[in-house]
Amino acid sequence: MAVPLAGYQFDLESVLQLIALGVSALAYIGYRRRAETLASHGRPVPAWREWCFIGGLVVLLAALSPPVDSWSDKVFAAHMAQHLFIGDLAALLLVLGMNGPMMQPILHIKVIDRLRFLANPVPAISVWAINFYVWHLPFMYRAAYDNDLIHALQHLSFLVFGAIMWMPLFGPLPKPAWFGSLGKLGYIIGVRLLGTLLGNVFIWSGTVFYKFYAAGEARGHISPLTDQSVAGVVMMLEQSILTICLFCWLFLRAAAEGEEKQDLLDWAHARGIELSDGRAGRAVTAGRGAELRERLEREALSGSRSPESGAAAVPAVGGSAASAGSARRES
């Protein structure tokens, strides 16, 4: 029920939109404070990460804004676009805005820390796919359409599970040893195939799944079946563009990592430092190639200055003198 106030009408949906705006503002304030703390300790957050985080909040608020939200209640294709903006683009940008030091306070929360296993590839794609498909079941979609609270829960779950889906690719948490370039390629293909499957169902099924959009479709002069097909095309188009971008990113990243690993191995070989190919590869993949180089350099420097080399020579000298004295006594 709408409540008139000073010429405006507030309903539950409007209140939820205001809450989303407030939470987004608090999230950015918390992000900035953490970034300032890290900068004061000599660990500044790269500017591009902050811009990604801001972009994620902007995309999220734009998708939840009254004009977009109003159209999403009338036309299924618009609702599909809204969900893609929330679950794909906003979630991706928010994950890109985070690094390890930035996430430390969040991981100190016990409940979240216990759920960090979800950031591994297999659990991540599994829970994302389940959430994605369950919400598109007609009775679940109808429940979200009819109830503002369930609708808000739907949007929140798309955002959260979308972020979990992106974590194995872009998140700062540790990944399995097998999740290298080929593993990431398979992960991207798997995620995109799961989305493409549903998009094809909407395009080619010939059956209208969400008939409750009929009134809005009539006002928009579009038939329900055409609306559903357009929604499938929107999904396919968005995922195709995103997949091409991800493939380009993966190719460039693999090339950069290969070059960085070889540079690290050559550097260690030139200094006589023992470094295996696997260890160098793991460090570079985790984004810690420079950190490993600094550690090895410190270890080599401390080893060369160790007093043990000098101390070891003393018994040898003493032993030689004793042997010479014994030889003289025997003679």
Shape: elongated
Number of strands: 2
- Helices and strands, in N-to-C order? EEHHHHHHHHHHHHHHH
* Overall pLDDT score: 85
Kindly name the structural category.
mainly alpha
Largest sheet: spatial strand order: 1-2
Which regions contain 5 or more consecutive residues with pLDDT less than 50?
1-9, 308-331
Beta-strand percentage range: under 5%
The level of helicity is: over 70%
Determine the number of helices (DSSP H or I, runs of at least 4 residues).
15
Description:
The chain has 15 helices and two strands. It is mainly alpha-helical. Strands 1-2 form a two-stranded antiparallel sheet. α7 runs parallel beside α10.
Summarize the structure.
By secondary structure, this protein is mostly helical.
Topology of this protein?
Layout: E1 3-5, E2 8-10, H1 12-40, H2 47-64, H3 66-72, H4 76-96, H5 100-107, H6 110-114, H7 121-135, H8 138-146, H9 148-170, H10 181-204, H11 214-219, H12 224-270, H13 277-285, H14 289-304, H15 308-330
Antiparallel strand pairs: 1-2
